[in-house]
Structure formats: C-alpha cells, structure tokens
Fold this protein.
Amino acid sequence: MTDLLFLMVAGLLAGMVNALAGGGTLISFPALVAFGYPSLTASVTNAVALWPGYLGGVLGYRAELRGQRRRAAALGATAVLGAAAGSALLLLTPGRLFESIVPWLVGFASLALLAQPWLRRHFVGDGPPSRLVYAGVLLGGCYGAYFNGGMGVLLLTVLGMFLHDGLHRVNAVRAVLALVISTVSVVAFSLFGAVQWQAVVVIAPASLVGGLLGTRVARLMSAKVLRGVVVAFGLGVAVALALR
C-alpha cells in the first residue's frame, strides 16, 4: 500500500510540474527506478503514465488557447515528426552519448529563457514568426520523446523566442505540443516497449489531477514570475540530470 501511495504522489507532482513548466519526469522517473524497474523500462512506463497529465494541462489552458488553433496545429504536425524520430532513437539505440549532453541542453535552454526578452529584441524583432520555430519544435519533439525531462523548458524557450504573444498563451501552445509529443511516445512504447501497466494504472490518474492543478497555479503567476519559476526549475533539472 505504501509503495502504491508513493507512485501516486509522484504522479500527482509530476503532472503539476509538467503543466507548470515541464520536467515532471525528474520526479516520476526516479520513483519508478526506486520501485525496482530497470532504467529503460522505467522510461517507457513513465512516458505512458504521464500522458493524462499532459491532457490535463491542455484542458486547463482552454481559455489561453482560444484563437490559436491554426498555430497549434501547424507546430503540432512538426512535433509529431520529431517525436517519431525520438521514439525510434530510444527503442533502437543505447543513446549514451545523447544522455550525456541532455543536462547541457536543458541548462542552455533555461538560461536562454531567462535572456529571452533581450534575445528576441536584439536578434528576432517583432515581425512575423521565423520559420526557425519549426526547426526548434522538431528538435524539441525528438528530445521530448527520447527523454522528456526538461522538454517543457526547451519548448517554451523556442516558442517564446519566435512567437510574439503573452507568455501564458505561449505556455498554452507549449502544453499542446507536449501532449502531441507524449501521444506519439505512448503509441510507440505501447506497441514496442516494455511498459509496466500496473504502474501506469496508479500514476496516470494522479498525473491527470496534477495537470489540472498545475495550470491553475501557473495562471495565478505573472509572466515574470512564471519565467523565473521555469528557469529555476530548468536549471535544477539540468543539475539533477548531470548528477544522475
């Protein structure tokens, strides 16, 4: 009973963090490893179990997503391609080199998000969104399907650089892309991965509740506070990944 409660709490917290900033994997993945699952099994099980949390995040951001259907659909199609590539990488390769650079990627993304207003003002400007946003989403989809710890930070950095909109509305699009990437991963891992469904049954409902709660917390924050929270959490994720 204690073990099940442990996984349930991990799923709840992971869902909240994913809705708020991304990076909930750094809570639920270690919990599954501590539960006794091998790393690869824990990774694919975690990806499937957290899917409801991403759905909860999107449902919670319904108001912020109004008027953004075309934008979300175009970027979502790009995210599908990246997620398919990332899922294949996880299932077909050991990925040790990729894992070694993940902390640097997340750390760089966090610092880029901190400097995002300055970077956009000096290098991007206020014209139409650059097509580079699609390249960034493609890479973010690949990374997120392979190991989604810090995926939200990476996606929010890319979107914030090139989409000229309020941070909360941009974060809502980020939630949609995270759900798309997670959905591709769930399909791939359910078909070809060693998913432990008994753990999924415990974590999934908790992550859904956490996703809904996380969006409420995020909505209460100003753009500056939200950016600060995401940056702080992203740097923490980077350090945790490096130590792991």
Observations:
- The mean pLDDT is 84.
- Residues 2-243 form one domain.
- The chain has one domain: 2-243.
